[in-house]
Amino acid sequence: CLLSGDQLRIANDLKLMLDRLSSIKRIIRIYLERLEKLLASNDLHESFSSINHSPIRTSNSNLQVKNNNKK
């Protein structure tokens, strides 16, 4: 099957566009993976932060302050 010059150019352009789209997909996948890691890290920090500010932790801190004041 022989292709004319125009058909070859169109086929080549399509191949280049598909290659470019593949590159863009790869870049987007990398950014999404980074974003997922960042969000997971942020969730972890928020979890630790909520533990540090939990009512039990706060009441323990208050007890320590009250005990120190009694001395």
Task: Explain what the structure shows.
The protein has helices spanning 5-52, 55-70. The protein has one domain. With 71 residues, it is mainly α. Helix content is 90%, strand content 0%.
What is the terminal-to-terminal distance?
A: 97 Å
Shape: rod-shaped
| Estimated structural class | mainly alpha
Helix content: over 70%
Low-confidence stretches: none
SS element count, helices: 2
Strand tally is 0
Q: Bin the strand percentage.
A: under 5%
Q: State the order of secondary-structure elements, H for helix, E for strand.
A: HH
Task: List the domain count as a whole number.
Answer: 1
Biggest sheet overview = none
- Radius of gyration (CA) equals 30 Å
The average pLDDT is: 81
SSE topology sketch:
Layout: H1 5-52, H2 55-70
Kindly summarize this structure in a few lines.
The protein is built from two helices and no strands.
Labels describing this entry:
mainly alpha; 71 residues
